[in-house]
């Protein structure tokens, strides 16, 4: 997470929160299910690019999107 923070300017805390939100935490869905998000190859590839510093602008958009989603779900 430190490497992503270094490469993107997001804080380590924000990167950890995004990672937990996307890959680890369970979420309550509209139909009442509680489970993790379905694994997504494109998201895992984006995360790898973010870790190794070869990220694209789309990967930054991914981080911003997930952070916004996380904040909406917290409220």
Task: Briefly say what this structure is.
The protein has helices spanning 2-8, 12-24, 41-52, 57-74; strands at residues 27-28, 34-35. Helix content is 67%, strand content 5%.
Question: How are the SSEs ordered, and which strands pair?
Answer:
Layout: H1 2-8, H2 12-24, E1 27-28, E2 34-35, H3 41-52, H4 57-74
Antiparallel strand pairs: 1-2
Write up this protein.
With 75 residues, the chain is mainly alpha-helical. The protein has one domain (2-74). The chain has helices spanning 2-8, 12-24, 41-52, 57-74, and strands at 27-28, 34-35. The longest helix is centred in the C-terminal third of the chain and has 18 residues, at 57-74.
Strand portion? 5-15%
Main sheet characteristics: 2 strands, antiparallel
Number of domains: 1
Number of strands: 2
Query: Helix count?
Result: 4
- List unreliable stretches of 5+ residues: none
Average pLDDT, to the nearest integer?
A: 95
What is the C-alpha radius of gyration, as a whole number of Å? 13 Å
Question: How far is the first residue's CA from the last residue's CA?
Answer: 25 Å
Give the strand order, joined by hyphens, for the main sheet: 1-2
What is the overall shape? globular
Fraction of residues in helices? 55-70%
Secondary-structure element sequence? Answer: HHEEHH
Q: Label the structural class.
A: mainly alpha
Could you list some keywords that capture this structure?
75 residues, globular, two-stranded antiparallel sheet, mainly alpha
